[in-house]
């Protein structure tokens, strides 16, 4: 079927689009000309289809003069002005300093059944007009919906925002790439967030990430990470396999640990265990008494050697990872108030834990703020594009959980 409907993510601005029948976006954008446009609300729902009657461009501060609007009737002029006023008061113009394209819209049709577009993707998508008038509650593409209602892409690369053809991807084990196909994939969200950060100047995200992830008053780490100076040789590595320390191998069997994210500088190592819709494993393959948090701290403190070591559990919300949150809080309390008790919990590693400086929980929603701030601060067009795509994708992922 002809894909003649352009759909755009608009969870932050959909209300004022519907109210004023005006839409604005940073110019230029690589949209293909289509007869119809629709806006994806929070959760991917679509309530209306529009046609584009007219368009014009404004430069900052987006205060049109009477001359800019002379070709429009008075009612349309008022719609444009009130849209700009409401957007400035609410979502704002996220790419400050950049021209914006404004679309004057005519409503084509209302969709009372409010179909839901799957998958939740960043940026724009195209669908057939017939999909929206078919009365089907879910519109899908490039994949299937499982019996449990989870969308899975036919090609795992369609679930990735960036670096889709990185040579490490085909070399991954089949189970890993299978997991990357799911809309609930922890691996996909980890890849999209941290691979995006790798393409952005760290000075725009490093201080905020450290503040949200490590330097928290809630968890009071023993030693804060300085954020006033950007570290030299800052690296991000995903899914690195780390061998267990030899004292563990001498006393109990232990396989290698695959660490979701390792952020490292010349002075510290930060292990991040990423969860999305799941909780931590309460036992490891070879030892049912060792949970996933303990294992990461044990292996990480040894890997860091003479550097300060930090561990964080990265989650969507406490309720979905309640065991992990409770475990982190227990270890953090022991670390900051009863170090000897903390070391006793790690049995054969008690003489190697002095470099553990913080154990925290932080949230995927923190990256929505980080990428939004990057969008507003960045001057490089490529980095702005990376931040904008990640921001919209993360916004929809978090909104998806609110709806579902």
Overview of the structural elements:
The chain is of the alpha/beta class and 404 residues long. It is built from 13 helices and 15 strands. The chain has helices at 14-20, 74-89, 129-133, 168-171, 174-180, 186-198, 206-213, 246-251, 292-304, 322-337, 339-345, 365-377, 381-403; strands at 5-9, 22-26, 36-40, 48-58, 100-110, 116-118, 125-127, 138-140, 143-145, 151-153, 235-242, 257-264, 268-274, 308-315, 356-363. The chain has a six-stranded mixed sheet with strand order 2-5-4-3-1-7. A five-stranded mixed sheet has the order 11-12-13-14-15, sandwiched between helices. A hairpin with a 3-residue loop joins β12 (257-264) and β13 (268-274). α1 packs antiparallel against α2, α6 (186-198) packs antiparallel against α13 and α12 packs antiparallel against α13. The protein starts with a strand and ends with a helix. The model has no long low-confidence stretch (mean pLDDT 87).
Gross geometry: globular
Which stretches of 5+ consecutive residues score pLDDT under 50? none
| Backbone structural class | alpha/beta
**Mean pLDDT over the residues:** 87
- For the secondary structure, the number of strands is 15
Distance between the termini: 29 Å
Q: How do the strands of the widest beta sheet line up side by side?
A: 2-5-4-3-1-7
Helical element count? 13
């Amino acid at each position: 079927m002809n894909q003649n409907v352009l759909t755009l993510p608009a969870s932050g601005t959909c209300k004022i689009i519907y109210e004023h029948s005006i839409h604005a976006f940073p110019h230029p954008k690589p949209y293909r000309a289509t007869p119809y446009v629709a806006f994806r609300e929070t959760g991917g729902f679509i309530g209306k289809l529009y046609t584009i009657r007219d368009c014009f461009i404004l430069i900052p501060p987006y205060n049109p003069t009477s001359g800019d609007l002379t070709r429009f009737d008075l009612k349309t002029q008022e719609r444009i002005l009130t849209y700009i006023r409401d957007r400035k008061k609410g979502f704002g113009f996220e790419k400050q300093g950049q021209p914006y394209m404004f679309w004057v819209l005519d409503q084509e049709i209302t969709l009372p059944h409010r179909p839901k577009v799957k998958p939740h993707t960043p940026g724009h998508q195209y669908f057939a007009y017939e999909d929206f008038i078919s009365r089907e509650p879910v519109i899908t593409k490039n994949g299937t919906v499982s019996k449990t209602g989870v969308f899975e892409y036919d090609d795992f690369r369609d679930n990735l925002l960036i670096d889709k053809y990185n040579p490490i991807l085909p070399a991954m084990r089949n189970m890993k790439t299978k997991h990357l196909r799911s809309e609930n994939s922890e691996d996909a969200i980890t890849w999209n967030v941290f691979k995006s950060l790798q393409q952005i100047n760290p000075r725009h995200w490093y201080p905020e990430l450290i503040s949200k992830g490590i330097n928290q008053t809630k968890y009071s780490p023993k030693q804060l990470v300085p954020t006033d100076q950007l570290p030299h040789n800052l690296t991000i590595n995903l899914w690195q396999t780390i061998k267990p320390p030899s004292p563990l191998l001498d006393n109990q069997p232990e396989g290698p640990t695959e660490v979701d994210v390792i952020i490292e500088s010349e002075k510290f190592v930060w292990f991040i265990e990423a969860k999305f819709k799941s909780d931590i494993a309460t036992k490891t393959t070879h030892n049912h008494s060792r949970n996933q948090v303990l294992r990461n701290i044990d292996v990480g403190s040894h890997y860091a050697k003479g550097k300060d070591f930090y561990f964080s559990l990265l989650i969507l919300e406490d309720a979905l990872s309640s065991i992990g949150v409770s475990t982190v809080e227990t270890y953090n309390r022991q670390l900051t108030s009863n170090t000897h008790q903390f070391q006793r919990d790690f049995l054969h590693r008690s003489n190697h834990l002095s470099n553990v400086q913080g154990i925290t929980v932080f949230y995927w929603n923190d990256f929505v703020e980080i990428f939004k701030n990057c969008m507003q601060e960045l001057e490089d067009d490529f980095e702005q594009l990376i931040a904008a795509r990640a921001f919209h994708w993360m916004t929809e992922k978090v909104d998806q959980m609110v709806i579902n």
